[in-house]
């Protein structure tokens, strides 16, 4: 027990009835209460961050008044694992070639002309119907070129005939060829063309108002798409 002299507790003019303990004694009492609280929390099985931090501060004081170690000082902010933000977790990925094919096929199947019944396509290779659709498709392409170049029904002004010639590949050639029971690669090429040709026909007139140029661009896109999907220029080993 600590003995307190009467001088410390004697009332004075400045501090009436004041009774204070020395600084070392009060510090010891505070440390003793903190240690009791920490021991009580440990006995109860409490392991919260506050108890760990208080223990570290107490140990630091016993080592010479220094604060808690650096690894314990930053434990409160580093102990909780940071989860990825929703924006990072759901970062958009570029669509693959398979996804693009599915989207094109679905769009073309929705808007392109198709059979009204679910029966098997009778225009299989080797049949007369297959040949009719094929001849119709390429003949409409040639006829559209003649109309676009103003060779048939010539006119000095833009008219419906030249407009039909410009759109002949999209309105007649592609639907006729899609109506056949063609291969998967050719069907993919026609699906891409069904979506690509309208873009060409709408964009080019903003820069060059010519029916012949638009038809030529459609024909070039047709040939390039077929050569890509059917592998016309690939070396066969």
From TrEMBL:
<dbReference type="GO" id="GO:0009507">
    <property type="term" value="C:chloroplast"/>
</dbReference>
<feature type="transmembrane region" description="Helical">
    <location>
        <begin position="214"/>
        <end position="233"/>
    </location>
</feature>
<keyword id="KW-0472">Membrane</keyword>
<feature type="compositionally biased region" description="Basic and acidic residues">
    <location>
        <begin position="58"/>
        <end position="73"/>
    </location>
</feature>
<keyword id="KW-0812">Transmembrane</keyword>
<keyword id="KW-1133">Transmembrane helix</keyword>
<feature type="region of interest" description="Disordered">
    <location>
        <begin position="41"/>
        <end position="98"/>
    </location>
</feature>
<feature type="compositionally biased region" description="Low complexity">
    <location>
        <begin position="74"/>
        <end position="95"/>
    </location>
</feature>
<protein>
    <submittedName>
        <fullName>Uncharacterized protein</fullName>
    </submittedName>
</protein>
<feature type="transmembrane region" description="Helical">
    <location>
        <begin position="189"/>
        <end position="208"/>
    </location>
</feature>
<dbReference type="GO" id="GO:0006952">
    <property type="term" value="P:defense response"/>
</dbReference>
<dbReference type="InterPro" id="IPR044966">
    <property type="entry name" value="RPH1"/>
</dbReference>
